Automatic annotation (TrEMBL):
GO terms for biological process: regulation of mast cell degranulation. Residues 378-401 are annotated as: Disordered. Transmembrane segments: none annotated. This is FERRY endosomal RAB5 effector complex subunit 3. It comes from the Eukaryota. It comes from Coturnix japonica.
Amino acid sequence: MKPNRGRTCAGEKDYVYTLNAGNQHFVLTVPLKFPVQENVSHLHGRLMLLHNLPCFVENDLRESLNKFIEDETIKGYDREAEMALEAVKSGEVDINQLADTWAKAYKETTLEYAKPEENSWDEDFADVYHDLIHSPASETLLNLEHNYFVSISELISERDVELKKLQERQGAEMDKVMQELGKSLTDQDVNSLAARHFESQQDLENKWTNELKQSTAIQKQEYQEWVIKLHQDLKNPNNSSISDEIKVQPSQLRESVEGNGRIYEEQRLLEESFTIHLGAQLKTMHNLRLLRADMLDFCKHKRNHRNGVKLHRLQTAMSLYSTSLCGLVLLVDNRISSYSGIKRDFATVCQECTDFHFPGIQEQLEIVQKVVLKARAQRSNKSKKHHGNKGSGIEDKSKNIERNQSNILQGEFYITRHSNLSEIHVAFHLCVDDNVRSGNITARDPAIMGLRNILKVCCTHDITTISIPLLLVHDMSEEMTIPWCLKRAELVFKCVKGFMMEMASWDGGVSRTVQFLVPQTISEELFYQLSNMLPQIFRVSSTLTLTSKH
């Protein structure tokens, strides 16, 4: 069809305009190429200017020109249509293929003929889960999740015990070999034994990794199928087995062995809560909390199924698909991985319980890594096109970016989603460097600006509770004295206050909860000094005592 259109519509036509002025007769002939790509108003103005036409013919010329272009264009389309029909009648064009092309075009461009959007499996499961968790079946769901959690925890405990035994046995073998070194054995024998030990350890770790991956996949499939079936049964009012299906049987709850060495120690929690109002004219109320706690305490599940633990878990589950999500800020290095530091601890906690709604932590990190590589490549290409060859400084910087394309920059962060953690749904992994341990960072430091961007994401994505490390570190060190801590806390308090005041323009003034966490190793004296500082920086709401006059 397209070649025909080019053959029939393209061409040159003469536009003829006649003008009678008294006894004189004028004729203006202008060749025009069809289809006309130029703006008709611009073409009209050029004709008036180039041919010195009088102003009284301006309107008449415009109408005549518009009519000529419109008529000739329609004639061209008519000729094209006639040729297309002739091609169909002669069999030159397959009518079935033509019909499929038209049907596809209508479906893609016309809403009336488009296929209705179908919900994905994840969206359907999310709706079903949201209905069930707000129904009498909620406790049954939590009990089932707890049983799955204990099962995975036992597998992890078995893995740790087996790895420990292997390491002890290999250590004993290496000690014997080292005693014989220089007598009957050489360095090559030691290296060979170390290589065999490493290979054996890798094989054992791979075996347990595959077993855990298979177990979590089976659990996820079983859980989702059971949730869908239960929801369908609840829709059937004549089904008499529903009450038995959602009945809680305490004897069915699996409790992990207390002596397995994997029970998390509970330390004394220090906590202070404040209610503040921010804003110049329209004030918004926010809740602030200062806690001495480990960041991962908000992620870890407790093995014993106490009522308090169940209530925390129930609240997290009920708000999973809501506009009141909970987030957490983790301070990480620039490598997107889970091999060291708090990243490894966080990944371990995530893997202890199957995530029935989102991909696992490793899958999410792989997706983030791909997105970072793609973004770095686009940014690098854009920078090269913009700067060209403007100097060695820019070239050195671009080489540095290219050398570390898989890493993120200071102040950047990536997000992971979770449904299997104790009290949070979203984790912000904020990239910081060793500079945060110095005492000279300012409000323009990448870590501080990263906090601002995180709060902005919270506003735009319905995260109403966010936990932030107040000192921008997870662990204390010798250089972090009391003056250092007070100075850092004051900086973070003031910056977060400014960012929270900006929130009013971001989300219209939504009440939020901000939790400031300090490491567990700080003293009670320092904690209460920080607690006294907070109401001096934020405007804390004061209570009014009303007394009646007698």
